[in-house]
Each structure stands twice: as C-alpha cells, then as structure tokens.
Write a structure and sequence with these properties.
globular; 2 strands; transmembrane; two-stranded antiparallel ribbon; MFS_Transporters; mainly alpha; Growth Hormone, Chain: A; about 0% strand; about 80% helix; 2 domains; protein transport
Length: about 500
Amino acid sequence: MTTANSRVSQTKSFMTVSLIELWERFGYYGMQALIVYFMVQRLGFEDSRANLVWSACAALIYVSPAIGGWVGDKVLGTKRTMLLGAGILAIGYALMTVPTENTLFLFMALGVIVVGNGLFKPNAGNLVRKIYDGEDAKIDSAFTIYYMAVNIGSTFSMLLTPWIKDYVSHHYGEQFGWHAAFAVCFIGLLVGMANYMVMRFTLDAYGSEPDKHPVDKKKLMMVLGASVLIVLMSTIILESETIARLFVYTAGAVVLGIFAHLIRSSEPSERAGLIAALILTVQTVFFFIFYQQMSTSLALFALRNVNWDFTVFGAHLWTWSPAQFQALNPIWIMILSPILAWVYATAGRNNKDISIAAKFALGFAVVAAGFFIYGFAGNFAVNGKTSSWVMIAGYGAYSLGELLVSGLGLAMIARYVPARMGGFMMGAYFVASGISQYLGGVVANFASVPEGLTNPLETLPIYTSLFTKLGIAALFCTLLALAVLPLMRRLTATHQAHAAAKSEAVPEQS
C-alpha cells in the first residue's frame, strides 16, 4: 500500500516539475523564434549585429545555470530557486512587451532572461533527479518524458508567437505585433507558475537542504542583489561586441584549464575517462556551432529565400510565416526520439549497440547531410526561392544529428566522469556549449546580407555558399570523430577496467 502511494506521489511530483518546465520552454522558444527577426526587421540591426547579439545572449543563457545550480543546492533551496527563476523570466518577457525601440532596454530585458534561466533551468532538472534518486530504470524513462515536455512547449510556442505577431501587426500596426507575441511568452510563464503554486504540495518530500528550513532573507537579498549585478553585466556584454568576444574566449580558456587541472590531478584510474570526456566535449562544441544556425543564418534564409507555401502537385496545403519553420526542430525531435530509443534498446538487447563516440561521428555525418540539402536547394530554386519541403528535409537530418550528439552529451559526462566531479563537470559542459553558441553566431555572419540587398536571386547564393561550407565542415568533423575512434575504444576499455577493479575492491555488504 505504501509503495503504491509512493508511486502515485512520484508521478504527481514529476508532473508538477514537467508542467512548469513545459511552460518555461514555451516562453523561451516563443521568444527565440522571433528575436533575430525583431532585431533585423523592427530595430534595423544589420544581420551581423543581430546574429552576434543573439549568439552572445545564448552563450550567457548556457553559462548561467552553472551558478544557478549552486544557488539551489547551497543557498536558497532547489524549489525556491526554480520558482524565483521562473518569476524573473516572467519579468524579462514582460519587459519585452514594452513597445520601445531602445536597444539598451532590449539588452536589459535579455539580461533579465539570462538570470531567470540560470536560476530556473538547473534546479528543475535537479528536482527530477531527486524524485527518482536511486531508481536508474525509472530516471531514464522520466528524462525521456521530460525532454518530450520541453519539445511540446517549444513546438506550440514557435508556431503560435509568429502567428500572433502577424495577426496583431496586420490589424493594429507592426509596432504592436512583436510585443503582443512577447506578451504570449510572459502569459505562458504566469500559467506555469500558477499551476506550480496549485500543485506545489506534491514536492514537499523533495528538495535540497535549504528547502527544509525557512527562507533566509539575508541570503535571498544577496541573491537578488547579485542578480541585478549580473543583469547589468549581461547588458554590457550584449551591447559591446569586443567585451562579448573577450568574455567568451576567457570562458573557453577557463574550461580548458579546468579539464587540464582535473586530468593532471586525478587518480591514474580516472584519467582515461576524463580524457575521453574532454574529446567528446570538444566534439560537442563543434556541434553547437552548427546548432546555432537554426536561430541565425537558417532563420534569415527562411525569411528571404524560402517559399512559405506548402504545396503537393500544385495543390496548396498551408502557409507558414518564416519564424514558424524553427518549430520543425522540436517536431522532428518528437518523431525521432521514440524511434531512436527503440533502436538503442533493440541494439542493446542484441549486443550490437555502438559506442557514444561512434554515435557522435554518425551525428556529424547526418548534420552534414542536412546542410548539403540546404546548399543544393539553390539549384532547384524558382526566382531565388527554395521549396518549403527543403526545410522539412534539412531539419529532419539536423534534428537526428542533435539527438545523436547533443542528446547524448550529458550521458557522456555521467558515463566517463567520476561521481565526485559530476556536478562540476556538468557545469563545465554547459559553459563549453555556451561558448560554441557564440562561435555559431560568428560563423552565421559569413552569410550576412549587406544592408539594402533584398533581391532573393542575390541573397540566395550568400546562404547556399555558407550551408555548403558548413556541410563540408560537418563532414570534416565526421572524419575527425572516426579518426579518434580507436583512441576512444582504448580509453573506454581502460576506464571500464579501472571501474570494474574498483568495484571488486569494495567489500560486499552483508
């Protein structure tokens, strides 16, 4: 009877966290679908500036959870920090609803979103881990469903916010359309927080040590003060390209330094696993450079050189706005995830599963295919516009590559890094991913369209040239990943041998 009640409690607790995560992702991806278009079309930014501002913001968004996780574990408590993060995110989206063209105001709003994401993101994930702590079979299934919740939220918002923007712009003026769409992101966060407040009792048994005690108001004020400081710092970084570049490259040097120190100071039995983790982390950095094209060069390609009408044999089916094409990524993720999970499970039962390193190599090959699809699409364009079905095919390959590389990144850390370094290395992994988001913006700028150039026949070769080069670069990454496979096999074998010897050395518990 107790076990049954416990199971029900676990399910309800998990649903509470999943629902607030769904609404948080609804807000974030709804904003991401429009932000580069907003800067280019509404604020008059050049492509290059819009790409770098958003990529610097994405880098900060990836780096900030390294701090937010620590605040949740040691300072305020996991649940309180998650809710505080959601509240700050709501404020950030509310600021974006203000109809102003002041760029500093936009950068400040994005800085608030950076802080909110940093406090929310790691603590929501940590709560799921705490709910299923010690139940490995359940936690794999839980995170699969959790990942689906993320994609459900992002799919609906990426389809909805561009439609809201177009509808309000058409009826009430363009200056209100953008901000009405950002208001949808704000409302989504309010719904998520309201739902959490109703269901919060289901999480009474979970949380970190500070959650068990009354709120320490002094610590809360310190966190809020630090948050204001980080908002100001983020605003300065987004405003200055030089400072943004310095920040990103410094963060990169720090991550490499951390890896070097841990490898040098670790026990000999841990070294092979850490070197393997470093190799795979570097490969992940390259992947995220490709990934960042979705909200930069590919988004602008959809704006200028894609036919937004979906037709079959001349019959019109439906029309999308350019921002809605980004929803193809989560749609493909939801389609491919269960198929890939089944393939992994079947291969595992038959002892035919391939290593994470081999899956990384396959992922790069698939990403290369996706970019070649975009690159070759120019050969079949009509008046400079490619078919919308090209976007579906390209995003399909792109998303499969994401599942093979990014989807296994955290599993790689868990597999190769000693448990005592797990949290620290998870933070380093996210920092590395953030660095590559910025580098992705730098790469996207190779397809920056000069101001005033609007003819699709002239903009098309600018994009297809970049996509073909990215396909070649992804192919090169595939060859590198294949070249290090023998080394990865040796490192993995050494790591497993040491782990087995260590487990045998531990006396059995009576």
